[in-house]
């Protein structure tokens, strides 16, 4: 099977699986801080790619400098998490998802530590497929934006490990190294769930 055919089949399979997929939703999320992110897929040169951003270095930001997906905190005016993902993506990358693509599904809620306070924050990932070419116009929150081929993420030989230290505790965690960029943590959990649908 050619690369083009297999990639196209893979994308259609993701769309079909997402349509039937029942993501885990935290029933208590309405009582805590919430965020939403966008996993944006595009077809380019016979390949499927997902957009990731490297967050700008900012003092006090626990995700400063990390590889992530466009997104952020829900505002009071955001009726749904989907609206948050669309709004934040436009603010951070200049991509207006309602014109450039459409949502093909969502993944499971992830519980994260908040910027402040003791209560956790729930992050909801939404998956989008672009149907038109876009240009990135990153704002001050984004150091760079990069398209990562799904074929790279699906290659077991690209999977690596890293050591994370929290005080005296050392943990070995899975990751990818895409050039000098390291993909791990919440973003990796989201990618793993997405790729499990292929």
UniProtKB/TrEMBL annotation:
<dbReference type="InterPro" id="IPR015797">
    <property type="entry name" value="NUDIX_hydrolase-like_dom_sf"/>
</dbReference>
<dbReference type="Pfam" id="PF00293">
    <property type="entry name" value="NUDIX"/>
</dbReference>
<protein>
    <submittedName>
        <fullName>CoA pyrophosphatase</fullName>
    </submittedName>
</protein>
<feature type="domain" description="Nudix hydrolase">
    <location>
        <begin position="31"/>
        <end position="177"/>
    </location>
</feature>
<dbReference type="InterPro" id="IPR000086">
    <property type="entry name" value="NUDIX_hydrolase_dom"/>
</dbReference>
<dbReference type="InterPro" id="IPR045121">
    <property type="entry name" value="CoAse"/>
</dbReference>
């Amino acid at each position: 099977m050619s690369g083009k055919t297999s990639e196209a089949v893979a994308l259609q399979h993701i769309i079909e699986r997402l349509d039937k997929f029942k993501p885990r939703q935290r029933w208590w999320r309405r009582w805590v801080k919430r965020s939403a992110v966008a996993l944006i897929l595009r077809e380019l040169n016979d390949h499927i790619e997902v957009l990731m951003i490297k967050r700008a270095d900012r003092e006090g930001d626990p995700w400063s400098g990390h590889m992530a997906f466009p997104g952020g905190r829900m505002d009071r005016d955001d009726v749904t998490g989907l609206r948050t993902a669309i709004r934040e993506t436009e603010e951070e990358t200049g991509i207006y998802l309602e014109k450039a693509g459409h949502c093909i599904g969502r993944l499971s809620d992830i519980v994260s530590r908040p910027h402040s306070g003791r209560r956790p924050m729930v992050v909801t990932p939404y998956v989008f497929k672009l149907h038109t070419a876009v240009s990135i116009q990153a704002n001050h929150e984004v150091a760079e934006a990069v398209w990562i081929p799904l074929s790279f993420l699906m290659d077991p030989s690209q999977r690596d490990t890293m050591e994370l230290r929290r005080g005296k505790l050392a943990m070995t965690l899975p990751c990818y190294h895409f050039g000098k960029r390291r993909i791990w943590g919440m973003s990796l959990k989201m990618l793993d769930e997405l790729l499990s649908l292929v």
